[in-house]
C-alpha cells in the first residue's frame, strides 16, 4: 500500500530552494494509527502517512527534512541521523531542515515522546531507498550488477575494481530511476551503525549559539503589527463591554480589535478578549494597560483550587468506578496492623517554556501565510483553514504554514490557540500581525496539568509482598477540553502509570471517580504519570518503611517474577498506549518486568543508594514505565533546620535502541531539573476561577543553585526504541520526597514540598 | 530619535525614551538574538551588556542606555570568530531549545570579564538570574569553566563531555 513518488525538479526546487541538477526523494508509507479516544484523535488527526524527504545536490551535500518539530529534545538531529545511517552518508555533509506543515510528511504531531518510537522503521526505509537508488545508478554506470556495488561513506564502491563514485556525482542519474518499494530494501544491522547511537554534531547547535536560530517571537515582516491581548481571566468568560479610547491614544497603537466569542467545548481555540495592535511590542503592551473591560466571568467563577482539592481527596477516599479489577479485593477484610493507606495530591502545573507563545499571520485574499512554533503543524493548519472558512482537504494550497524552532514547549505548544489569534487579527486588520504573549499571559492562559488526588491502600503479606491492593485517582480529564461533558479519565489517561501498574498482587482494584472541570487542562511532559507515579513511587517507599526493608527490595517483591505484562490480559481491557494498542500483532507495548528490575538495580548501584548516610541525609528512589521506556531515579538530599538541599541525582534510562546518546542524556538532565521544580516549589492555584500566579516570582522554577551534581546512566539495549522526552520525569518526584522522608522523617504527600519545608 | 551605540555601531532609533531597551533592540533595531522571557528582570533571557556590565534589557529603558556601549549576543563574535564562551557552549552541547542561551552566554561573558577564574559558588551567584527551563545548568557550569581556561591560555579538550587538560 506504499505510495511513492519522485519529486520533479520544480517541486524539488520549491522544497529546498536549491539550483542545479539534484536528486530529491519522497517516500510515503502507512504508519499504524489506532485511536479510540478524543485525545488520541486530536494528536493523530493530521494524517496516517509518513513521508520524509531527502535531497542530494551535485556537490554531495545532503538535505534531510525533519518532519517532526524541534522544541529542545533534539529531534532535528535524531531523525536525520536515522536516515543518514541507512543512506551511508557522511554526517558532516548532512544539513537538517525543519519541515513546514505538509500532509505529504505524514503525521507531524510532535508529542507523546513518539517521534522515534513510532516512526523509526519508515525513517530508516527512507534512507535505505535513497541508498538503493544511488547503488543502482553506480552499477548502471559501471555496467555491473547491483550486487557488486555497495554504498559506503558517501560513495558507492565497486567491490571488484575498488573504484568509487561520490553521492553528488550519482545524484542526477539516481533521480531518474524508478523508486523501489521501501519494503524491499534491506536495512543495516545495528553492528554496522556508524551514525545512529554515536555522539554526532548536533543540527542547529551553532545557529543557536550564534543567535541565528529563528523562534516564533523572531518573525519580522514589513508593515507588521504586534498584538497584545487581554483575555478573559476565567475559562468560559466573555467580554461584556470595553472602552478602547485611552488605549488608542498611546503612541504607536494602530488598532484595537475585539476577538470573537467562543463556546464550549473550549478545544484549543483562543479564549477571545480584546487585542491592542501597535507598531512595536512595547506600544501594544502599554496600550493594553489602558483598556477598560467589563467581563462576564461565566460559569467557572467560583472555582477554588484549594476547596476543589479537598473534594478530590474526599472522592478518592470512597469506592469509585472500577477500571481494572484483578481477583476480588473487596471480599477481603484488611488487617490494620499490616495495612498502609495514603492519599497523595499534586497541584495544577504550567509548562513555563522560556519562550511564551507567539505566532505571525498574514491573511490575504489569495494566500494566507502563517509562521508559528508548534508541536502540531498539520492540526494547526487544519484549524487555520477552518477559521478562514476553507476546506481542510481541498484548500491546502491556500495556506502556507511555516514552522519555527520552539523555545521550549513541553506539551503547551500542541495547542494552536495563539496561532489562531494571529490569523483572526490579521484577517480583521488586513495586515500581517504577530501575536506576542507576555509571561503573565502565558501563566494565566495555559492548558494546565490536572490537579489530582491519588489514593493507595495495600496490605502486606508476611513475606513483604502484597496480595490486596487498591488504587484510586480523581483528576479533571484532559478529554474535557474536547468534550464538555467528560467527567471520567479516558482509558488512554488511565494507561499513564495508573491502571497499568504491573504488580503481581492477586487481588487489585483500580478506580476513577468523576469530577467537573473548570480550567483548561492539557498535556504537560509525561502527563498523568506525574501524579500517578508520585503516588505509586511514594507508596512503595511507605510500604518498604512499614516492612523495614530497602525500597528497591519492596519494588522487586511487588513486581514478582520476571514476565511480560499485558494490562489487557490482566483486567484492564481499555489499555492503550497513546493510541497504540497491545494485541497479538503489536507486542511493543507490553511491559517487561525484567527491564524494570534492571534499570532500578542500575540506579541503586551507580548511586550507591544503599550507603549509610550521616544524620539529616537520605537517598530516595523510584522506577517507572512510560512511553515504552523504563526510568529509575535516585536522589540524595539533606534536610537541616527545616531546609531541603538536593545533594546528588541519578537517572538510569532504558529507552531501547539509543539514537542520539547525548540528547538522551540532556533530556534526563532536563527531566531531573523539571522534577526538582515540580516537587519542591512550583504550583498553580485558582481563586474565583482566576489563575493566581503571574510570573517566575510566584511560579518559581529551579535556578542553578538548586541543581546538584547529576548523573545519567543509559542502558545498553537491543529493544525497539522507546520515548525519551517524557519518561525521565515521573520517577524524579517521589525520589525526592522519599529522600526527604529518609533524611528527616517528614513524609510529604501534598506537593509542592515548600508548603512544609523550606527549599 | 535616540542615538545608541549598538555592537560598536552608532544607530538612531525612533523609540520612546521610556521603552525598555529589549523592544528597541528586537523590534526597531531588528536584532532578535536577545530574547523576551518575563518582562520583569527575573529570568535573564534578555541580558545584554551596558559598558560591559550585564543588565536585563526588559527593565532597562532606552534612555538609560543612551551614551553607553550596548553589546548584544550578535556582538560577541569578532570577524566571524566565536567568543570562547560560545565555543565552549558548542563543545559541551549546552543548548536544548536554545531560547535562553543568548542571555546565559551574555551573563557568562560578563562573569569571566570580572572574574577570569570563578569557582562553582561564584558561577552559581553570577548565573542565578538566568533561568533555563530545559535544564542545561550542569553543562553551563562546565562550559564556563572551559571558557575560563581557554581565555587564560590553557588548552582543553572535551571528550565525550568530559574535560581533558592537555
Please write out the topology.
The complex is a heterodimer of chains A (759) and B (166).
Chain A (H helix, E strand, L loop, with lengths): L2 E4 L2 H8 L6 E8 L7 H7 L4 E8 L5 E5 L8 H13 L6 E5 L21 H23 L6 E4 L2 E4 L5 E3 H9 L29 H5 L15 E6 L7 E6 L1 H4 L4 E7 L13 E6 L2 H9 L2 E5 L8 H12 L4 E6 L12 E8 L11 E6 L4 E5 L4 H11 L11 E5 L13 H13 L3 E4 L2 H6 L7 E9 L5 E9 L16 H4 L12 E6 L16 H19 L3 H9 L4 E2 L25 E2 H15 L9 E10 L2 E12 L2 E12 L6 H20 L5 E2 L2 E2 L18 E5 L17 H13 L15
Parallel strand pairs in A: 4-5, 9-19, 17-18, 21-22, 27-30
Antiparallel strand pairs in A: 1-2, 2-3, 3-4, 6-7, 7-8, 9-12, 10-13, 11-12, 14-22, 15-20, 16-17, 16-19, 20-21, 23-24, 25-26, 26-27, 28-29
Helix pairs in contact in A: 3-4, 4-5, 10-11, 14-15, 14-18, 15-16, 17-18
Chain B lengths: L1 E5 L2 E5 L7 H8 L18 E4 L2 E4 L5 H4 L3 E3 L12 H8 L9 H14 L5 H8 L9 H15 L4 E4 L2 E4 L1
Helix pairs in contact in B: 3-6
Please give the share of residues in helix of chain A: 25-40%
Report strand order across the widest sheet of chain A: 11-12-9-19-16-17-18
Low-confidence stretches of chain B: none
Shape of chain B: globular
CATH topology of the largest domain in chain B, which one? DNA polymerase, domain 1
- The rounded Rg of chain B comes to 16 Å
What order do the SSEs of chain B take from the amino end to the carboxyl end, as H and E? EEHEEHEHHHHEE
Return residue spans of chain A where pLDDT drops below 50 for at least 5 consecutive residues: 1-21, 26-51
Number of distinct beta strands of chain A:
30
Main pleated-sheet profile of chain A: 7 strands, mixed
Number of helices of chain B: 6
Q: How are the strands ordered across the major sheet of chain B?
A: 2-1-5-3-4
Largest sheet of chain B: 5 strands, mixed
Oligomer: heterodimer
Give the amount of beta strand of chain B, in percent.
Answer: 15-25%
Residue-averaged pLDDT of chain A: 92
Amino- and carboxy-terminal Cα gap of chain B: 52 Å
Class derived from helix and strand content of chain B: alpha+beta
Which structural class do the helices and strands of chain A define? alpha+beta
